[in-house]
Every structure is written in C-alpha cells, then in structure tokens.
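Morning F.,

Quick status update on the modeling queue. The single chain you submitted on Monday has been processed. Sequence for confirmation:
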Amino acid sequence: MKDLISYDAYEELADYYDRYVDIKPSNAYYERPGTLSLLPDIEGKRVLDAGCGAGWYTKWFIEHGAKRVTSIDFSPNMIKLTKKRSGDKARVFLADLNQPLDQIESQSKDLIVSPLTLHYLKNWETPMREFNRILKNRGRLVFSVHHPFMDYIVFNRDNYFTTELLDDEWNTPDGKVKVQFYRRPLSEILKPLHLNGFVIEKLIEPMPTDEFRKAQPDTYEKWTKRPQFLFIRAQKTTTIK
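Structure tokens below.
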C-alpha cells in the first residue's frame, strides 16, 4: 500500500480530516452539495462508498436509510475513522482501487459513490470495470474529481491533453503536507465510462454555496469564476464481460 500515490499524505491527514470534515469549506460547502445533488433516493439501497476517507458519506448513507453500506479506502487511518463514525452499521475494509475488488460480490450494489478519489489513480480501466461488475443492472455511479481546467491553469501546464502526476502542498493547521495526484483532460475522464458500460446521465460544475461565501469570501469569489471540481452521475447500461 505504501507505494500508492499520496498514501503517506492521507495517513498523516487522517486526524485533520476527522476534526474538520464537517466544516471544511471545500468539502462541506462545495464538494458535498454537488455530490449529494446527484444522488438518487438511497432508502433501502445497497451502497459502496469507494474512497470513504474519514467516513462522512458512510454515516450519511446510514442515516438516510441505505439497506447496506460497504466502505473502502487505501488508508488504514481513514478506515479506523470510518469505523468509528459508522459503528457496526457498515462493512468497512482496506482496499486499493488500482486492484480488483474481489471482496465485493458482482451485481451486489445499487449505487457507488466515489468522492474526490479517482484523481489519485493513473489508470481508470480497472476501477471502472470493477464498478461495472459490482453494480446491478441500471445501477448508478456518482463521483467527483478535480476539474481538468483547474489543474491545467493552476499548475501552469504546457499541454492540456497530457495525463500526468502533479505535486501539490496543502496548508493545514498541523503544517504543510505534500500531496500528489494525476491530472487528465476531460476526454480521459469520460472515455473510461463509455468503454466500461456506463452512460452519463448528468455532469455538473456547481457554484460554491452561500455557506462557503460566509466562511471564505475571498476564495468564494475565485471559485465562482473558475471551477474546482467536476461531478458526474452515470448509469450502468451494459455488463462488461
């Protein structure tokens, strides 16, 4: 696991996420409203939280009537926090989305949600194929990732069409943390969906909420002019053999 992109960063960031997950503006007032707006009715549904982090979505799914919640992450510290938030009401275990998810049965989920996770993977073929296998017929995948325009502009890249590993540094109350992730053009975000049996139902570039404006007015003004994240809901229409 330690060779995974940003593994050490997220092991270090786990406590920070646990303390701030409910109020961190980029998550609480931007990413989550976007993702939640794309979710179907989850009452009585079987849900996979793919990249559960500190467990906010896992807890939300439980509280909103999901029949069964399975949560996975590559960080042992994040897994511990998700177990703490969910108690015994979710199945939570360590997994690497770069690898087949053999612990999860085929056609066993109605919904897969993957918030701000897939940009840590270079190749999306394996996770998209696995998501197709795990979802029931007509099941849905909802995910958020870095917006390709944002990464291209902020990191001043020469070639928009390149898929490449970027280095970033996040400022936290506990100090600076180095984080790595992959950027890719929009076509390389959409193509793996089409190749693996998904049809895009909705794609959104939402505005930060009014709560975000109150918490970080300067950042709010910037983010109303430049998208930060991209949100997609897709439906499984074909089973990939």
